Give the backbone structure.
Amino acid sequence: MAVQRALVCLAAIAMLFQLAIAANHPVGAPGGSWDTSTDLKAWAVSQTFSVGDNLIFKYTTNHDVLEVTKANYDSCGTSNPMKTHTGGNRVIPLSTPGKRYFICGTAGHCGQGMKIEVDTTAAAANSPKSPPGTPSGGSPPPPKSSNGENLHTCITLGIGLMLMLV
């Protein structure tokens, strides 16, 4: 029984530690934001995104954030976004590994560079990025879940495990 409690406690600590190491990525920072004057491509390439991290978009109301397919990212197509975010500030959790694409839906802004490609890795936040073209090995990423679902599950499991210890 004591070993079981110790294992449960270690699992709870590991889950809470994962939440604590998640990084917030203010898009375009420092010195820039989600706008046409920031070199967003250079910013995105300079970042390492890991599962559990958050993208923080801060923008004026004449902009928005559209999550789109790779084809729409390449062509700046705005007609069929996967998700649309408006309102000036948006936190987007990176809950699964893989590439995601974001553009501004305001006419002409995507073509002026207001778009980013985010490659989220399953590795820890402090691990180095693989060089481009390096095979990731392993199986395909799990199906995408709704925003915040992994965080909610982690918190629920952590609370449940801690209650078991009482």
